[in-house]
Amino acid sequence: MLKLLVVNPFVNLDFSRLNVNLCFLVSVFSIVNRMRYRLLYFHFGHNWLT
Questions:
Q1: Cα 9 to chain center, whole Å?
Q2: What are the CA-CA distances from residue 22 to residues 6, 19, 27, 35 (Å)?
Q3: Which value, in Å, is the radius of gyration of the alpha carbons in the chain?
Q4: Averaged over 4-18, what is the pLDDT?
Q5: How many CB atoms lie within 10 A of CB 49?
Q6: pLDDT digits over 12-48, tens only?
Q7: 35 near 28, Cβ under 8 Å?
Q8: What gap in Å lies between CA 3 and CA 1, rounded to an integer?
Q9: In this predicted structure, what is the pLDDT of residue 29?
Q10: Domain-by-domain residue ranges, the chain?
């Protein structure tokens, strides 16, 4: 598998692009998750205060 990646530049490029996309998706997902938790926390906190 590693030899194939080294030999074939197109497969190597595709693999790196996939890796970048995965990293991007993971970062976006984590940011969205954090925002959602913050909104939920704020919402419940507001409900408890009133």
A1: 26
A2: 21, 5, 9, 20
A3: 20
A4: 68
A5: 6
A6: 677 778 888 888 999 999 999 999 888 888 877 766 6
A7: no
A8: 5
A9: 92
A10: 2-49
